[in-house]
Amino acid sequence: MAKAATTSAAKPVKKPAKKPAAKPAKKAASAKASGKTLLVEQTGSPIRRPASQRATLIGLGLNKIRRRATVPDTPATRGMIAKVAHLVRVVEES
């Protein structure tokens, strides 16, 4: 079986256009300013869970069962807790 002839004509490579730098997002009312925090405890294992749920636990500062982390009480943090509500519990709100 004979090999097919290869062509040596290479196509020019197009460089992607540079995107303008992203503007920094406006920060919402900081939890530090209001002083509200949540004490969250991990109650379930991230084994056999989607990678996004494992990443959310790490974002909350948790990585092992019965570990606790103090996180600011913000809408973003509340959303993270809601996403992994079956793996964590809120121990204390202050």
Can you characterise this structure?
- The chain has 94 residues and is an alpha+beta fold.
- It has a domain at 32-93: Ribosomal Protein L30, Chain: A, CATH 3.30.1390.
- It is built from 3 helices and 3 strands.
- Strands 2-1-3 form a 3-stranded antiparallel beta sheet, with no helix packed on it.
- The longest helix has 9 residues, at 51-59.
- It starts with 30 loop residues before the first helix and ends with a strand.
**Span of the ends, CA to CA:** 77 Å
Largest sheet: 3 strands, antiparallel
Number of strands: 3
Approximate helicity band: 10-25%
CATH third-level topology of the domain at 32-93? Ribosomal Protein L30, Chain: A
CATH superfamily of the domain at 32-93: Ribosomal protein L30/L7
What would you report as the Rg, rounded to the nearest angstrom? Answer: 24 Å
Q: What's the mean pLDDT score?
A: 85
The low-pLDDT segments are: none
Q: Proportion of β residues?
A: 15-25%
Count of helical segments? 3
Which class of the domain at 32-93 in CATH terms? Alpha Beta
Structural class: alpha+beta
Topology, please?
Blueprint: H1 31-34, E1 37-42, H2 51-59, E2 68-72, H3 75-83, E3 88-93
Antiparallel strand pairs: 1-2, 1-3
Q: Could you give a short description of this structure?
A:
With 94 residues, the protein is of the alpha+beta class. The protein is built from three helices and three strands; from the N terminus they run αβαβαβ.
